[in-house]
Amino acid sequence: MTSKNTDTEKDREERLKGESSASGLRSWLWHRAKPYAPPWIVTGVVGVAGAGGHVLWSGSAAAGVGLTLASVTLTGAAWWAGKNAGPQRRLHSAITVAAGSGWVTGAALAGPLPDLFLIGGATAALSWNLRQTLRSTERTADPSGSLLEKVGLAKAAIKNAKVEPNRVTAGLVLEPGEQTNDDVTRALPRVASALDVPPTAVRYLPDPDSARRGELVVVPVDMLADTVRWEEEGPSHPGGSITDPLVIGVYDDGSPLLLWLPGDKEAGRNATHVLIAGMTGSGKGDGALNLMTEILSRTDVIFWLSDPKGFQDFRPLLPGIDWAVEGGTPTEVMIEAVKAVIPARTQWLGQHSYRQWEAAAAQRQTDPKHSCRTGGTPCGCEGLPFHVAWFEEAGVSLGLLGDDAFNSIANLARSAGMALVVSLQRPSHDQLSTTTRDALGSRLCFGVPNAMAASFMLPDAVIDAGAAPERWANRRPGYCYLITPGIPEERYSSPGRTRWFTDTATSLMETVAQWAARNGARVDPVTARAATGVAGSAYTDRSQPDTGTGPTEEPGMDDPSTGTGPAVDPEDKDIDPEADLPGPQPGDDAPLFGEPAGRKPSPDQARELFAQALDEFASEGRMVIGPKDFMDWCDTHNLSRSWVSLRLKDAAVDGRLEPTSQTGRWRIVPALTPA
């Protein structure tokens, strides 16, 4: 490189300091004229060809036909050969060839036309000289080279550039054998620097069928900088179906950020679950509210929510939610209920000839094609609404239940017309099992602290295309990437932003919840029966969505405050007032030194007490239990935890308990309840 530069400088110096003789001047003029000589040489050749043709074919009709066909053929060939050139160069070339070949044909048949030749030939040659001069001027104006040269892609070619409002898309064709799509991916930060735009404004979408072709996308203006308040627009489609797109924000080019939960066989879109993640302060909570309010504003979906934070963000929406629980054991019960609901709903869909859930499944079944009866008569069964099970701050629940608590739900729920939404700060391997994470097909990724955290949420291809949520961290709340079925894959690396919820949004959120309570779907008998069969009173006595309060009992004859019933404590109602008091038992008095404190029940009494304890847990809605739940009970009745563990296993054998996915945890089988 140094030697080449030195030779160039010497050549330039010799030209500047060369002798001023006539020969030196001629040499300099010829050196300057050489780049512009080819058009004139070609013009001269065309003139000689026309004169020679006149000598050979003057007056020949056959030669006239042949020359005409040759002229048309050459013009078409020039147009075809210029398909990879710019439109101006292609048109210029075709016109020049058409004019030259037409003149040769006319000169051969009718004789040379000197005036026409001199004027037309000179004009054609000068037009190419002018084009050459302008091209040299452009190179001189940009001595550092083109954009692709600056970023190390000098041999790449730009094809089929498309300019849209705030979006430029250019096809790239790289040098065969020397450049690959990976080279463009590594050059993206330099492209952003050359264009003076944010790094996330430049993306590259490789062609899956080629290692050297793709599309470079540049969004020059960040349209996400202006925050949009949710209450300014509210839900996008109130009263619509869950099959309609859920609008949760906008992309950086201004187009809507869309998400679908159910599948659509006609559109070729699969049903999906959603994983939401982002660091503290990244706007994950507002993103969740955008999605939740969209779901609650539809008429054919029921919603279950688990939130260990005590509904801190979602409390205004509780009236529209069918079942809402906090963390710990209630969440454990909800997970077991969801597991039981899945096969019940799948069976209903199969009986009614639905290969996957669709909007018609939520309506009363009056179509003979979807009848569970034989003979093709409509069954009239009540519909099956879509079902969303949302687990907020799932990292807290997974810390108690294990990282595979959602495995079976994530793998099976889509076929049952259900969507699982899991929201947590960091879906790492120690938080969420790889099996569950892979089954959550949609990802809503907000800002993360580093590239490692981004890799847990975004596919490698999306990161290679330019997606980098770690560049925002929590400095741009609401900025996100959305990976979901139903949107083009080239959109995956485009950043979006969800809408902002302020304190003034609370009243509109409450309105949405009340609207959902009055107009939204009611839980279907299939789902209710399956949930009740697992959760018992934890589900039947849940807060009612239309009032936000639990069921109340009518004042009865047994209410002491009315003065109309017996003023007896419920725990004493079975005592016979006429029976003799039992005799003293060992341990009833204060124990002597070295004796056990309190009376230990007999084996039969202990088993009876244990059965009563199970009934009490069930009545309280604590349907998932283990030995640790009996600690106070053991102290009261002077029984050991090992004895309780044995009784739990015996109860499972007897059918009173069912094992859960967590070791040492058991699910109480509720007593029979009315359907």
UniProtKB/TrEMBL annotation:
<feature type="binding site">
    <location>
        <begin position="278"/>
        <end position="285"/>
    </location>
    <ligand>
        <name>ATP</name>
    </ligand>
</feature>
<dbReference type="GO" id="GO:0003677">
    <property type="term" value="F:DNA binding"/>
</dbReference>
<protein>
    <submittedName>
        <fullName>Sporulation-related protein</fullName>
    </submittedName>
</protein>
<feature type="transmembrane region" description="Helical">
    <location>
        <begin position="36"/>
        <end position="57"/>
    </location>
</feature>
<dbReference type="GO" id="GO:0005524">
    <property type="term" value="F:ATP binding"/>
</dbReference>
<dbReference type="InterPro" id="IPR050206">
    <property type="entry name" value="FtsK/SpoIIIE/SftA"/>
</dbReference>
<feature type="domain" description="FtsK">
    <location>
        <begin position="254"/>
        <end position="455"/>
    </location>
</feature>
<feature type="compositionally biased region" description="Polar residues">
    <location>
        <begin position="540"/>
        <end position="550"/>
    </location>
</feature>
<keyword id="KW-0547">Nucleotide-binding</keyword>
<feature type="transmembrane region" description="Helical">
    <location>
        <begin position="63"/>
        <end position="82"/>
    </location>
</feature>
<keyword id="KW-0812">Transmembrane</keyword>
<feature type="compositionally biased region" description="Acidic residues">
    <location>
        <begin position="569"/>
        <end position="579"/>
    </location>
</feature>
<keyword id="KW-0472">Membrane</keyword>
<keyword id="KW-1133">Transmembrane helix</keyword>
<dbReference type="InterPro" id="IPR027417">
    <property type="entry name" value="P-loop_NTPase"/>
</dbReference>
<dbReference type="InterPro" id="IPR002543">
    <property type="entry name" value="FtsK_dom"/>
</dbReference>
<feature type="region of interest" description="Disordered">
    <location>
        <begin position="533"/>
        <end position="604"/>
    </location>
</feature>
<feature type="transmembrane region" description="Helical">
    <location>
        <begin position="94"/>
        <end position="113"/>
    </location>
</feature>
<keyword id="KW-0067">ATP-binding</keyword>
